Amino acid sequence: MERVAIMKGFVLDTSVILKWFSEFGENDLFQALQLRKAFLDGSIAFTVPELLFYELSNALRYNPSLSSKDVQAALDSVIDMGLVVKGVDKRVMAEAISIAFRYEVTVYDAYFLALSRMERKPLIIADYKFAERVKFSKEIIKLSDLTSEILKEPSL
């Protein structure tokens, strides 16, 4: 029987992409870089909300070791990666608001989880405080828990 490769899909949180621009020694940096490599190799796909680019550029802006040119270059590199970018969606927003009230988290953070649910794709996250607040959400994969099994190419 011929094996057919199926690309795994995930929703990726800003906290993971932010690690791509972090210093060596950062917690979970290896896992974050492995995810990026798997994406660039074409073995996994990432879906992100448009909100990610605002959060990422804002977080990088407050990194004292980065200049405005560095932040722009970092943002451009992520934009150029070819992530599947989802604009604002009323159904996702309604779910995000519901999650925000249920778990007492920000709508910004809840939007990633809501998108994960609507897309039926796991959310990979490095924001462990948020993950703890919504710990009963089966859609979340903590970056620290990421295993090589998740990155392996599935087949039929």
User: Any idea what the shape is?
Assistant: globular
Widest beta sheet: strand line-up = 3-2-1-4-5
Tally of contiguous helical segments = 8
How many beta-strand elements? 5
Per CATH, the architecture is 3-Layer(aba) Sandwich
What would you call the structural class?
alpha/beta
Mean pLDDT: 89
- Report how far the terminal alpha carbons are from each other: 9 Å
Could you walk me through the main structural features you see in this protein, from its secondary elements to its overall organization?
With 156 residues, the chain is α/β, with parallel strands linked by helices. The protein contains eight helices and five strands; from the N terminus they run βααβααβααβαβα. It has one domain (8-150): Rossmann fold, CATH 3.40.50. It is 50% helix and 13% strand. Helix 3 packs antiparallel against helix 4 (68-79) and helix 5 (90-103) packs across helix 6 (107-119). The longest helix has 14 residues, at 90-103.
Helix-strand layout with pairing:
Blueprint: E1 8-12, H1 14-19, H2 29-40, E2 44-49, H3 51-61, H4 68-79, E3 84-86, H5 90-103, H6 107-119, E4 123-125, H7 128-133, E5 140-142, H8 148-151
Parallel strand pairs: 1-2, 1-4, 2-3, 4-5
Helix pairs in contact: 3-4, 5-6
